[in-house]
Structure formats: C-alpha cells, structure tokens
Amino acid sequence: MNVAASLERAAFFFPDRPALSCLKKELTYAELNEKTALVAAALLEMGLKEGERVVLWAANSPEWVIAYFGILKAGGVAVTLSSLLSCDELSLLVNHAGPRFAFTDNVEGFKGLGAPLEAIVGAGGDTDISGLIDRAPGRAKSVDRLRTDVAAILYTGGTTGTPKGVMLTHENIDVSAQNVAFIERSTEHDRALCFLPLHHVFGQVHIMLGTVASAGSLELLSSFNMDLALEILAENRVTKFFSVPTIYVRLSGLPSLREKLGAVRYCFSSASSLPAEIIRQWKAATGITISEGYGMTESASAVTYNHYYLHREASVGQTVPGVEVEIRDASGNRLKEGEEGEICVNGRNIMKGYLDNPTETEAAFWPDGWFRSGDLGVLDEDRYLFIVDRLKDLIITGGENVYPREIEEALYQRPEVQECSVVGLPDPQWGERVVAFIVPKEGEAVSGTELKSFLKARLSPYKVPKEYVMLKELPKGSTGKILKRELKETFGHRE
C-alpha cells in the first residue's frame, strides 16, 4: 500500500483531465504523475531509504503537491509543517522530526537552525524542485509499503500546549481520503477550491487527497484572498468550496452571494464548529447547506459526516464507513444515547501514535484501544453526533460547569456580532469568570450591557459572561481556528 498510488490510479484512468490549477497554470494528471515520479527517483538516487523523513515547509503551491507525492512514492515520510512557523518553532519541530532532506520556499529560514539536513530543495538551496527533476535518473513508481507504515507526520496546532507529531499511516490516510470521496459524492468532474493550508490534516487529507481519490481537480491558492477567491468562483468552474467558520462569517454578508458562488454545488466547514445561525443565514442566501463533519489530526480527518439527505442542524452527523464512535464517562464506561461525555473513536483511520512520545500516546487511548478525543459530545437516538465543547475549554465558575459554545451560539444571533469567543479567566471569587470577546461587524456598535440583557433572557445566570471585551480581530491559527489559549494568556492577568 502507498497513498501515492491514488495519484497513479487517477493518471491511469484520466491522464488528460486537469489535476491541479494555480493562478491559471494547469497540470493534467499525467503531467502531475510524471513530475512526482521524477522527484521520487531523484530522492532515491540521493539515498533516501524507506521510512526516512523529509520535511515540507512551504505555503500551498504546485511544488508542494509535487514534493509531497514524490516523497511518498519514494517510500519516505512527509513531515508537513506550517509555513507560518517562527524560527524557534521551526527549529524545535525539525530537530524533533530528524529529517534527512527538506523542501521549502524559504531557504533562508532554514539557515542557522543547526539541524543536520543533507540537502535543502528550494530556490537558493542545494537545488530547486526543477533541478531535482532534471537530475532524476528515471521515473519511480510508488514503493510498496505496509499499511501500518507511517506515511506522514503532522504536528498538532498547539492550541492546547506543545505540538505533538501525529504519525499517520498509509492505511489511516487512504481510508480517510476514500471516505471523503464517497460521502461527498465526488467525481472526476468536480473542481475543489483549496486555500486552506496543505500542511494541516484538513487541507492535506480531506481536500487534496479526497480530490485525488475521485480524480477531481484542485484549484489551489497559497492562502485566502477574498478578491482572488471570488474571481475564481466567478469563472463557474469550482463546484466544491471548503472553508472555515471565520471566512463563512465574512462571506455571508456579501450581496448577491448565490451569484458570487458560481457553479458551487457543495460547501463544507472545518476547523471548529460553525454557529447554527451562520448555517441558517447561508442557506437562506444561497440555497446550499453548509456541511460539517467531525475529525482531527489524530483521525486523519473524517470521523463523522452530516449527510446530504438527512442533514440534522447543529449536528456533525453520523460515522463515516468503517469508523465507530462511543460516548464515555471519565472512567471509560460507555454511556447511553442522550448522555454527555467524552467522544471516543475506533477505526482504521486512527493514528499510530505520537512521534517519540510514548507517554502522550498512552494517555490518548483507553486500554481497549479506543482513542480519546478530548471533546465532549452526545449521540442522539439516530446516532447523530452533537459536539458539546472541548474538555479543555470547559469553564468552572462558582462550582458550575459552563460550555463556551452554548454562549457563542447565542451571541451569533445578535446581528451586530461578527465573531466571538468565550473563555474562562482566573477570578479570586469565582475560580473562573466567564468572559466574552467580541469582534463587531463593520460600522456596528456593540454594547456589553445590551448583550448581557440579551443573554440573561436565554441562559442560566451563571452562564452569562461577567465581562465583554471588544476587539478588532481574534487570534487565529493557520487554519483559521480561534486560539482561545492566546486570549487566556493575553487577558488572564486582568482582575
């Protein structure tokens, strides 16, 4: 088994169909497969052995995709890192991963790291990807690997602490990519717009590999650019739109939104739960339901999916094929339908473990092998999963448990609220006090007093935030996820 074989399959059946497009430059499946085969051959010529690691540190680009498949074809392990890492963060992760080679669009960023890299591929490095292709002694087909062999290492975002290297096997990734292609009813005629980072599990597995699994086309942007994204959508070629809640919030206020989406038939939101009010607004404006699912880096993306046919509002759907979900209490006991507890997952998509971190790996699993997500949820009578909140985001104020998501859902019902995030900050009287951080819509005035009155009519008194902080923007990670940890670090000293 080799994840890269999916590209070879697509090239075999649809050699002349577009595989990848970026800023008007297009590669067919035959051309993309050829370039990756040459990169693989060059890496093998350089001495790369099966299971050895190669770092990919770059923004989205055709070269990123070529390098990724080339590494996997050669039997290597792709270590995909965010292009936004600081020098200190990069040094930490590169030294932890221990790669032999690196692909990058920022060679200068590698200088001075002290990492024992044998070669850096990129403009200004030992060679660039074109030079690597030119030196290839021939073309290499995908090296056959065991399904349990590691294919890629993705580092968790670090929203709750030090990043951990998630080891995803060829089976983990292939199962998830095939599930995505199936549940989204994807075909070779679909074109997916991807501006979400490919180093992250959603961009890499769900969008890129899910698209390749169905021999569709990938419309690639280095990052989100509103004007450029709307220009591409206006060309009426994109059929699938993938984004995150913060961007859906921005787009939902645009006039004539349905016309601006062009040929889009399908929308999906990732990174964090999308407020139900935004889903309703989008549906009213476009006629399209924003699909959601549930997954994480450790599950190689998809765990559950909210269906085309019986889409249940505020749910993240039912399990994808071959994956099981249980709700368990703090002792690991399985709970009944309707009972709230930790979401636990079992299936061939679950990671092999955390790189060189047996303690965290052991803590992530129950003794019977079920993965502990760290998320709180409920299953209804039809096995639809509802996310309650992150266990680590739970606020305990005056001895009462408060889930931020419930408050955020209520705040998004206010027309003047663009974005919001609710966290617990230290408080000498209450232990933690509930604080709401608000980004107002442009030109709108937001009154904390009015918001408090609004919430008092909808929530129990102890859930109503004691403080309302107005910000121009909320801190976000590379995927667009709001970083609650940074809010706590920045404002936690306030009393």
Please, could you describe this protein's structure?
The protein is 30% helix and 26% strand. It is α/β, with parallel strands linked by helices. The strands form 5 sheets. The chain has a 9-stranded mixed sheet with strand order 2-1-10-9-11-12-13-14-15. A 7-stranded mixed sheet has the order 6-5-3-4-7-8-18, with helices on both faces. Strands 16-17-19-20 form a 4-stranded antiparallel sheet. The mean pLDDT is 91. The protein starts with a helix and ends with a helix. The protein contains 16 helices and 25 strands. Strand 23 (417-427) and strand 24 form a beta hairpin. Among the domains are: 5-194, Rossmann fold (3-Layer(aba) Sandwich); 394-491, 2-Layer Sandwich (GMP Synthetase, Chain A, domain 3), CATH 3.30.300.30.
What attributes characterize this protein structure?
495 residues; alpha/beta; Rossmann fold; GMP Synthetase, Chain A, domain 3; nine-stranded mixed β-sheet; seven-stranded mixed β-sheet; 16 helices; 25 strands
What would a concise description of this structure say?
30% of the residues lie in helices and 26% in strands. By secondary structure, it is α/β, with parallel strands linked by helices.
Which secondary structure elements does this structure contain, and how are they paired or packed?
Elements: H1 5-13, E1 18-22, E2 25-28, H2 29-45, E3 53-57, H3 62-73, E4 77-81, H4 87-97, E5 101-104, H5 107-110, E6 119-121, H6 129-134, E7 150-155, E8 165-169, H7 170-183, E9 191-194, H8 201-213, E10 217-220, H9 226-234, E11 240-243, H10 245-252, H11 257-260, E12 266-269, H12 276-286, E13 290-296, E14 301-305, E15 318-319, E16 323-328, E17 341-347, E18 353-354, H13 358-363, E19 371-379, E20 385-390, E21 395-397, E22 400-402, H14 404-411, E23 417-427, E24 431-440, H15 448-456, E25 467-470, H16 484-491
Parallel strand pairs: 1-10, 3-4, 3-5, 4-7, 5-6, 9-10, 9-11, 11-12, 12-13, 24-25
Antiparallel strand pairs: 1-2, 7-8, 8-18, 13-14, 14-15, 16-17, 17-19, 19-20, 21-22, 23-24
Helix pairs in contact: 1-2, 2-3, 7-8, 10-12
